[in-house]
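Supplementary Text 2. Reproducibility record for the structural model of the 827-residue chain.

All settings were left at their defaults, and a single model was retained for analysis rather than an ensemble. We include the record here because the model underlies the residue-level annotations in Supplementary Table 4.
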Amino acid sequence: MNTEKDVVPVAGLYENWFLDYASYVILERAVPALEDGLKPVQRRILHAMKQMDDGRYHKVANIVGQAMQYHPHGDASIYEALVNLGQKGLLIDTQGNWGDIRTGDSAAAARYIEARLTPFAKEVLFNAELTEWQLSYDGRKKEPVTLPVKFPLILFLGVEGIAVGLSTTILPHNFCELIEASIDVLKGKKPVLYPDFPTGGLMDVSQYTGEGKGDRIRLRADIEIVDKKTLAIRSVPYGVTTGRLIDSILKANDKGKIKIKQIIDNTAEEVEILVKLTGEVSPEVTMDALYAFTDCEKTLYPNYWVLHEGKPVNLSVSDILRLSTERTKELLRRELELAKQRLQEKILFASLERIFIENRIYRKIENAETWEAVIETIRKGLKPYAKEFYREITDEDIVRLTEIKIKRISKYDLDKADEQLRAYRKELEEVEDNLAHLTRYAVNYFKSLLKTYGKGQERKTQITVFGEIKATEVVANNQKLYVNRQEGFIGYGLKKDEYVCDCSDIDDIIVFRKDGKCLVTKIGEKVFVGKDILHVAVFRKGDKRMVYNLIYRDGKSGTSYAKRFQVLAVTRDREYDLTQGTPGSKVLYFTANPNGEAERVKVQLTQSCRAKNKIFEFDFAGLAIKGRNSKGNILTKYPVKKITKISEGVSTLGDPEYWYDPLTGEVNMDGRGQYLGKLPQDAQLIAVYQDGTYEVRTIEEDKRRYDERSLLVIAPFNEQTTVTAIYYHAKRKEYLIKRFGIETSTLERRFSFLPDGEGHELIFASLSPSISAEVTYKGKDKKTKTFVFELDEICEPKSYRVVGEPFPVQDILEVKEVRQEVSEEEE
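Retained model, structure tokens:
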């Protein structure tokens, strides 16, 4: 019969069991150790491979079986972890089909693929004398608690793990950059370190600090415009496969977010996904839409949880790098101490052997009758030389002398023995010098790693800055907007009512009513927004060019007011009063002007009013543009019968200002990048590219993106525009200069101005009418020289098809444009 002492509350059991489980998952499965950067299963795999290592490849099935002696979770988890390590390449040399992280193709079965440790792994990961050992789960074997890794491996591999109550996301970094950063840490510098992903692509780190909390990194696929109807995706974001990427594009197309005709996956050794476009869409807009609505763009949120000294801690990248570098330095110190001890022992025994043989001590033991007497005889013979030894002589040392064979004694060469002792002592001096200058030794160690293993480890991910893509600006128009003005409904389901415009299903709609109310709401199939609708359109937040002209009658005083205003930002579904809010107020006249136009109107008053002039004209250009809450200017105090437009207005805002952002390739009105000037919306821009082509676009049709990686120079285009180019002619093997005007009239098409054939290289281009350039070159005496040339004086503008003229100097190293200071009036 159970007593009360035998009863255990269920709540207590759950609490204890849960804590045990949580601790186990955190410590033994999900979170890597800072000391070696490995999870337990990875550590056990590498230890098993070291035990098996004979220089040859081993079947992965055999490696998995060997690792199962240390890892208690079955072969599937071991195989998966081994494949993951093998795909990263640094530690495991693979043979066979190991899958592809870009396409998501899985590796072949364990019995078909092979692996072995790389030379880097053997050099950096293992040292039995420095390893702390523990019993395996069944007590039959010994396994390492952590491996003595002399490299910030945790930051190279990267890791994701989900435990109970915490998750870790450590991003992979570049091998060479990690070594250089470790060297900086040893030198007392603060390195700047950014992730690098094996899939390549583009990366924006403007919101990344390396602290983990609040960090985010945006990744994009590398997309190239092949022609007006084709985009080529050259890489995939980290963690996204080509199959998943294609599925996301097809899904966006089905939802009407983008419009494409066909997708062709040509991925083999390199990623290539061709996206064929319909004729009605622009490749630039489609590129932005791919980033906005598909897996071509991905955001990562790093979170650096690691195990340090057996406890989970949240660190920054700089902390992890510093601690890993300090651990490497400590391991190197311990290795040097062991090497010093081994050398001291070698010197000790070599000295003992020399004294034992040279002084013929071995003959003195011939008369000893007992073993104890032999030991004592040798000890007495060595005693005069005791000060030469770094420690006391033990019985084991003496026994070792007695084991020297007679053959060795008879052939003992004193000169060779002295030479060997000198070599040992010189080596010991080097070790002691390294111990005394440990930081220098650690720096040289990292430099040696970089020199030996750094080839082929160049950065794969390009660091850049992305512009913010507004989904409403790049989404394909997949719906039509309709309005029922009298009943007050808008939406894309009112197909029997008045058509307004094409739109998308994520657009916001702005509505103005006769009672002077304005609101912005999300589009839907049928949305009630209030009766007597005056104006409805797609709302563009922050559009400073859109100006509304309004005349309303105040319900209280009867006075009519005129105002010009903008609606830049609003709260969705909130009504805003454009009048003074008095009951009975009414809108008499309203226009929406996308470029700030100000028209003239004719105002007709009622016949019964006392005004002398019952008809007069009013020009909106005389009003300043204010906020939507402004009262407005008095138009008339008398009753208004009718208002009609006399003439279309012109913009009062002036031409907009444009900039080109070289980081994102965008033409913008936000003040980012190179100033292009105040330009009308039908102005044209000319761009010159690194491959020796030029292109003319209109700003109005410009989809606000250029290939920033290949664009050399961009400027407003007019009939007087002259291109100045210096290039290397591959066949003539000399540098030429040419200047030409633009003879082509086709827009949005690139024309080559270099001669036919391969190997030509454009080294300089300018769109300035008169230009000075500082040219650095090698003279005939092979010395580097610099001279400023007036390029417009070297040759006259001719056709873009001409080859050009030889440049005055050859062996050009660099050409820089010399900017002339001009007055504001000349500018």
